[in-house]
Every structure is written in structure tokens, then in C-alpha cells.
Design a protein that fits this description.
With 492 residues, the chain is of the alpha+beta class. It is built from ten helices and 26 strands. The protein has two domains: 314 residues, no CATH class; 166 residues, no CATH class. The strands form six sheets. Strands 5, 9, 10, 11, 12, 14, 15, 16 and 17 form a nine-stranded antiparallel sheet that branches. Strands 19, 20, 21, 22, 23, 24, 25 and 26 form an eight-stranded mixed sheet that branches. A three-stranded antiparallel sheet has the order 3-4-6. 38% of the residues are buried.
Length: 492
Amino acid sequence: MKYYHSYMTQQNISQETHYKLLELEAPKRPPSGAWTKYGALAACAVLIAGVAVWRMSPSFVPAPVQSGSQTVLDNTSLPAAPPLPPEPSVLGDWETGFVVPDSGTKGKLALPMLPGILYPDRTDSPDMALSRAYAPGSFTVDLTKEDIQTILWGPGGKPPADHPKAEQGDLPWMLFWDGYFVHGRAWYDGQGQLTELTIYGEKGRASFELELRQGALPFTCFVNLNREDEISEFNGVEITGWSEVYDRDGDGETDYICGSEFMTKDGIGVRFVNQNSLTQAEYGEGEHLDLGGSKTFNALFVRQALTGGLYLDHLKEAGYVPAWREEEFSTLVQARQEEDFAPYLPTAEPEGYGSYTGNKEFYGRLSCQEGTRNMLFVRWSREYDNVEVAVYRDGTYSYNLVSPDEPETYDLSLYPIPWCDSVPERYRETVDDPAFLAADMSLAVVEARGREHDTGGMTYSFDVLHPDGTVVSYRCDGMTAQQVWALVAETL
């Protein structure tokens, strides 16, 4: 996965393409294979979107010294970092997100002992990308500031003003999350039971992702093929740690990544991964200061989680479960029984394709969830060629509308492969995935969307926006432009 990040982020391709290559849940079209809902909570997903776009100069952190099995920082007080105004961030647009204010502890309190955690270097270890499928009806809820505070403080909340640690601020000061933009998301199954949750933080080039799951370690989107865990122990809990050093986000600068995972005594599975740190530290003798800073930041969280605790009871059940419906179809006739979708579906099998019983050559699925999606997808398969038609109702699909009068925004014949070199940046989204008004559709438009398919013949892809707001997405392999146009024309 790290090699994918390093390579793909230098190719200047669209984020939609990133989603497709990673097999995560794209915000638009369904996957080509059997219908599954892919989550974007995995660590790999966050950093594809990009990290923050402003920087802060690192402040000094005293070097830790070894004391038995513990790593201890000396009593030198930490100077306060100069405040910087928040600036736009790729991840910082959540309505429920917040910036953690300065707790006021710097210069007053010294760091206590840090756990002595092993963080072996896995930079060059091979890994394999995976996809995570969520059960039908799964949905997400953005975490509020109060939700996150309760996770870290417990049901008692922030200590009262007369508490000895009243200077804690919004979150426990020992996390050292001051100045981070923090937001989170919880995943629930179709019955409203908590599946997992993730809290994200970002501050300049530094970022973190905290994944929590009740009863088991959080899901993952990759497997380390040479994983030989080196286990550390703190407060009676076994901890697996790792580190990586490479240009993770493709910005030309080295990133220092540190991760740890463990099960708390209360049965909460934890994975905490942070990238870079605004502080420098020598976590071990002769440690690289930037890597040591990341290890120190990670160890600070581990200590807080295993001494202050983590709490999820307030999020175990969703307050409201949106209505949902999932259904599969084995024939086009069955799919066309859905009256809201039938006018936008083909009336007959595409020429050269068929739906033979037991042969899996036709696949159809209805996927509806209140306020989230309202879609019917059908696919015909013939060896390695597919014809896919997806109908999106009720404004549940985003699209890139273009005009036929501006061929530079959609005409594939104008751009040789690789598109990352030939397509101007301002047209990459539309050239990759354009949408046309139904009134603008024509055979010429379809022809402009054709390109050679790797199995021979041509392939076509585009979206059509109908007057009632319905969007129909076409992905057609092994057909002529005239055949594809026939599918579209009968719905106009």
C-alpha cells in the first residue's frame, strides 16, 4: 500500500481514480463485481485525500532517557508553540469538527513517564491492499465534540474547575493534541449497532487517525505480508507498534509514520497511526529526531488510553436508524418491476449479452437508504466485458456536468494515454467522468466517449442527467457507439 501511495500521488490523477484503484467506496458509481459497500475509514483512505496545507515550525521536546522498561522524559518544561491561524484543509470541512485549544499546561507541567514501546521499521515490508465490505444498511454518523470528549474523558466528562487537573482544556492535555483540527465518524450496521469509529486529527503536515472497535481490533485495508510482531507491554496490556519512513503523500517531503494497536482491558480494540509531529524528540538513544517525535506522539496516546481509559458506551447504539432496502435481481424483468427506476433501464438485453440462469451473466441490485442513496444497478457480463447501467434517484449522486459545445472537457479522442500527462488539470474530473443533460445527448457525444478496451473493441463511459434530477451512469464494454446510443435513446 505504501508503494501505491508513493507512486500514485505523483501521477496527478483525480481523487475519483484513487478511489477506484483502492476499491474503496467511491462517492459515485458501484463496483464492477458483486455489489459491496466499501468503507473509507481505513488508514489508507485518509491520506489519499491529502493532509493539511499549512505548516508550523517544530518546537523543542526534551529527549527521553531509559529507566528500566520505561522511557522517561526529563522535567524540562515544554515551551509554547507560536499560535497560527487555521487555514483551509482538505479534511477540515466537517461541520462537527473543532480545533483543540491550548490547554495552558505548557511551561507548567512536565511529561511523566512514557511507555517503552517497540516501533520496528516496516518501510520496506511488502503489503497487500484489501477491501472492506459493510453489511446492507450500514451508515455513518459524524461525531460531535461532546462525543469525542466522552470517549477520552469517560461519562464523567471534563474534570470540574476545582479538580487538581483543571487545566486539562477541552481534551486530556497529555494527548498533546493542542492545535489539531479533530473530527470523527462512527459506523453503524442496519440495526443501529456500532461497528467501529474513527477520529481524525490534522495540524500542518502532522496528522493522526484513531480507530476504535468494541470487542476486536479495528478492521484494516491492508495486510503486511512479512508481519512478525514485536510485542511491548504497558499497564498489563500487550501493544504492537511499527514505524515507516517514506514520502507517504507524494509532496516531495519525507514522512515519519508511527502506529500501534492493542486491546484495552475493557475490550476495546485500538489502532492509532500518526504521521509526522510538530515536535522533535529522541525516543531512543541516537533516535532520528523527526521519527522520535512521531514515536513520542504515539506513545503519549498509548499512555493516556491505558491510564485514563477509553469509553464507547454512549455510542453503542445509534439514536436513529435511517430506513433502508437492499434487494438483488436475477433478471432484467425483475429489475424493471421497480416503477421509479424502470423508465431509465434498458427494455431488453444488450445485443450480444444474455442473462442465462445460473451463469451469473446478469446481476441487478437495488440499494436504497434514507437520505444517503437511492440506486438501482444492473450489469451484463460476457467474459471480461461488462455493460453496466446505474440509475440514481433523489439527488443521491454527484456528477460533473459538461456541455457538448466544449469538447475539451470530455472528448477522449483529444487526449492520448496516459491522461495524467495529456489532460489539463482543470479538465481531469470531467474527462474522467462527464455528465450530460439528457437534451444534449447524441450519437456524437457517445462516440466522443469511446476508447479502446484492453480486451479488444471499445468501451464507453458517461452519465446522463434527466430533467427530474435522475442520473443514469453508463459503463459499456465490447459494444459499438450505435449500440450504446440505442440504450440511451430509448430513455430520453
